[in-house]
Every structure is written in C-alpha cells, then in structure tokens.
C-alpha cells in the first residue's frame, strides 16, 4: 500500500502536465517569411543552404502566402524537372545544383526580390 501512493501521485502529476501542455501548446508550423526564403535561395547560390533546409522548403506547402507558394513550386519544378526542362543536376564542391540549376535559381531569386520590393508594408484583410 505504501508504494501505491507515490506512484499514484507521480502518475497524476504527469497526466496533469500532459493535459496542460496539450491545452496551451501550439502545433509546430512551417511559416517562412519572404526574407527567410530569400536567404535560403541566396544560400543555394552561395553554398550556405543545407540539403535538409532546402528539402524542407521544397517539401512543405506554404499556405499562408500564395506568392511564396508559387516561388516554392517554381523551385520544386527546377529540382524535379517539371518545367519542361531537365531536372537540375547535382553540384560539386558544396553546391546543391550545377551551374545551369543555379542560374535558374538565380532567376527565381530575382523574381522574389521583385516581389519583396513591390509588396506593401501592411496587408488589409
């Protein structure tokens, strides 16, 4: 009987903590800003973007910004060869893509820079 009380109290505390965490916790979300995506694209050109970060960007839809989702889809088309051209080749010496792939990514980066320049500071809903 003496072991039951500490086990019961410990289990009760764990269950209460679990309920509190589930009640007040947030689901993890992937909501990159335009500047973060710009840094990611620039990193592809400068060899600073990791493969994991790039694949996360390509693999998860961006539902909070339709223009940014279009940028992501264009990068995905370059990566997988969905735009009528062949897929971008693997780069050497730390680059994710070969020269032709990086040139296509540079075009997307220019498009994103233009989007950032012309976007309003605030957005009315």
Structure report:
The protein is an all-alpha fold and 125 residues long. The chain has a domain at 34-118. Helices cover 62% and strands 0% of the residues. The protein contains five helices and no strands. It has helices at residues 4-24, 34-46, 51-59, 66-80, 99-118. The longest helix has 21 residues, at 4-24.
Can you tell me the overall shape? elongated
Tally of alpha and pi helices: 5
What's the order of the H and E elements? HHHHH
What ranges have pLDDT less than 50 throughout 5 or more consecutive residues?
A: none
Q: How much is the radius of gyration in Å?
A: 22 Å
Percentage of residues in helical conformation:
55-70%
Category from helices, strands and their pairing? mainly alpha
The largest sheet, given as strand count, sense and whether it forms a barrel, is: none
Number of strands: 0
Beta fraction: under 5%
The average pLDDT value, as a whole number, equals: 90
What is the rounded distance between the termini?
A: 62 Å
Keywords: Membrane, Transmembrane, Transmembrane helix
Transmembrane segments: 6-24
Question: In short, what is this structure?
Answer:
With 125 residues, the protein is mainly α.
List its salient traits.
5 helices; 125 residues; mainly alpha; elongated; 0% strand
Draw up the topology in text.
Elements: H1 4-24, H2 34-46, H3 51-59, H4 66-80, H5 99-118
Helix pairs in contact: 2-5, 4-5
Transmembrane segments: 6-24
Keywords: Membrane, Transmembrane, Transmembrane helix
């Amino acid at each position: 009987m003496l072991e039951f009380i500490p086990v019961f109290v410990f289990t009760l505390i764990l269950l209460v903590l679990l309920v509190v965490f589930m009640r007040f916790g947030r689901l993890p979300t992937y909501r990159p800003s335009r500047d973060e995506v710009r840094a990611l694209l620039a990193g592809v050109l400068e060899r600073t973007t990791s493969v994991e970060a790039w694949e996360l960007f390509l693999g998860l839809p961006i539902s909070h910004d339709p223009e940014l989702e279009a940028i992501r889809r264009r990068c995905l088309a370059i990566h997988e060869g969905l735009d009528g051209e062949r897929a971008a080749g693997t780069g050497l010496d730390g680059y994710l893509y070969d020269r032709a792939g990086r040139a296509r990514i540079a075009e997307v980066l220019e498009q994103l820079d233009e989007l950032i320049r012309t976007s309003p500071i605030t957005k009315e809903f």
